[in-house]
Amino acid sequence: MRRRLTLLVGATMCLALLAFVVPLALLLRTVAQDRAVVAAAADAQSLVSLVGTADPDTLRFSVEHMAAGSRGPVTVFLPDGSVLGTPAPRTSAVRLAARAGVSRTVERPDGREIVVAVLGRQDGTAVIRAFVPAAELTRGVTRAWLVLVGLGVALLLLGLLVADRLSRTLVAPIAELSAVSHQLARADLTARARPVGPPELREVAGALNHLAGRIQELLREEREQVADLSHRLRAPLTSLRLETESLADADEGARIAARVDAMERAVTGLISEARQRRVARVDAACEATASLRERVAFWTVLAEDTGRGVTLDVAATGPLFVGVAADELAAALDALLGNVFAHTPDGTGFAVTLAPRAGGGALLTVADDGPGMSADQVRRGASRGGSTGLGLDIARRVAQSSGGRLDLATGPTGGARVTLELGPPASGPSPEGRL
């Protein structure tokens, strides 16, 4: 924008300078020509009285003196054929003036010829000829044009400098607004724009600041609501824990109590996360193999109760680090396996596969032998099975946070096949990620 404003001012000034300089240059040339012609005509007119009355010697002396001081040739043609002053041929204009007594100015390729007829001599009509060369007609014009061009260039540079300064006062606040908007997009909600510049930009800055404040308020309210909702789950969990303690089968009670503990840990983590300010976890990382085995082992117990076959295939021969935190990876896998249990009948088997990803990271695939699902169910809130429709969206956001994506397809047996492409850690394997 700054460059465009400067170019616009420069183009406008060029047009204005052309409209001013070109007529002025033509006027200077005309003035120079008129000045030279008037000076030559004055020299010729000053000899008229001498040619008509002076004796030959005095006239010769005066004409030669005039010719020596004039910028162009001055010649006097007498009726007897004598030529005084600068030698010159009798042109057609001189012959016409001697014959008809006509004074005139004639335009010639090499200059201008001024002819003055002097009447009243006893021997006939004398003619005074003053000639202005072409070089004299344009004398000083080139220098004046150079001065005009220099002045125009100086004015243009000055105008561009002023335009650059003015455009900077406009562009700087706009650049600052852009920087603040990018900070807000990176979840830095403390960023604020300074109300500087023209009134319109100050109004935009105020609106942007108001928007940032409103977003902060809405996020704070949302976090509080999530925290309150999560806190309400503690009472049912406590009641469920008490129920498990009263079971006659100690093994069954221990198994259910372990699941209640896992759910309570998830609720506690949700409360803690909701009450903290969320920032981008660009350094998040974990070792995917251990997290995968731990969560599959958890779901295998429930799979055995419902008659489902579980297949775990880990193709990695060593640690496989991905750019997500261990709890987020566990949440994504729980969401995918939860969908299998929720939307397929008992006895439907499923397979979990983990393989290295080209370029770093991992490919996590969950495939089942159920009826499958359509691709539009990956949208947040989209579900035809009576659920909230958030499971696939949770997995998708986890994959995208690492620079990957979620793919939904149909498996070889006709069931759903969900693949999470998990990118590598941003700064290499993290010690915290080695489980």
Can you describe what's shown?
Among the domains are: 43 residues; 148 residues, Heat Shock Protein 90 (2-Layer Sandwich), CATH 3.30.565. It is built from twelve helices and twelve strands. The longest helix has 45 residues. The C terminus is likely disordered. The protein starts with a helix and ends in a 13-residue tail after the last strand. The strands form three sheets. Strands 2-1-5-4-3 form a five-stranded antiparallel β-sheet, sandwiched between helices. The protein has a five-stranded mixed β-sheet with strand order 7-9-10-12-11, covered by helices on one side. The chain has a two-stranded antiparallel sheet with strand order 6-8. 56% of the residues lie in helices and 16% in strands. With 435 residues, the protein is an alpha+beta fold. InterPro entries: 2C_sensor_his_kinase, HAMP_dom, HATPase_C_sf, HATPase_dom, His_kinase_dom, HisK_dim/P_dom, HisK_dim/P_sf, Sig_transdc_His_kin-like_C. Its EC number is 2.7.13.3.
